[in-house]
Amino acid sequence: MTVNGENQKQSGRISLSEFLIREGFQTERIAVERNGEIVPKSSYQSTFLEDDDRLEIVNFVGGG
Hints:
Helix content is 11%, strand content 28%. The chain is mainly beta. It has a single domain (2-59), classed as Beta-grasp domain (Ubiquitin-like (UB roll)), CATH 3.10.20.30. The relative contact order is 0.31.
């Protein structure tokens, strides 16, 4: 699996939600693209990651 351009090994089946929490992301402040398509936050629990997935995870930053 590739996350933000870096290869990452996965062991076993894991949901996108579990992955994001494990990696320390605050799910309310990010957007996730999986294989070129935006994943709705409502689908994080039911989206299971595959070895050949490409994820782009973007953090929202406030300020002015």
